[in-house]
Amino acid sequence: MRQARAAGVKGELATISFVGTENLIADRGRDSEGVLISQVVPAPSDASQRLTREYQAALKKTAPTEAPSYVSFEGYVNGRVLLAALEKAGADPSREKLVEALNSTTSLDLDGMKLSFSVQNHQASSAVFLTRVKGG
Fold first, then answer.
1. What does 71-131 look like in DSSP terms, one character per residue?
2. pLDDT for 104-126, tens place per residue?
3. Which residue among 17, 47, 101, 113 has its CA within the 20 to 30 Å range from the CA of 39?
């Protein structure tokens, strides 16, 4: 990214969420301006969505000094999926029961984020949220 910018590349650069949005911006500074990043969760600062508000409240309660981030929001969503599967697996969960519970969760609504699993599909969501770094 730095080399491309130093070489005068004006075109758009893109990456996936694995880059760690906040770390990318902190590490690359102004060189990250305009970079497109595909995300698997909505913006963690967008309080217009119920799931995001619940995440923000949970983060404030458990880590009050931490700022919302894509990474922790994705972890929150993963935790909610695991809790739903554990509940579905019953009072005496096992690995097999957990796998069965996940594979049979064909319609999970996490307060607006819709997820679906099956024996053939462990991705849960094909939603992509495109973000662009602007002004840090």
1. HHHHHHHHHHHHHHHHHHH-SS--HHHHHHHHHT---EEETTEEEB--SS---B----EEE
2. 999 999 988 999 999 999 989 98
3. 101
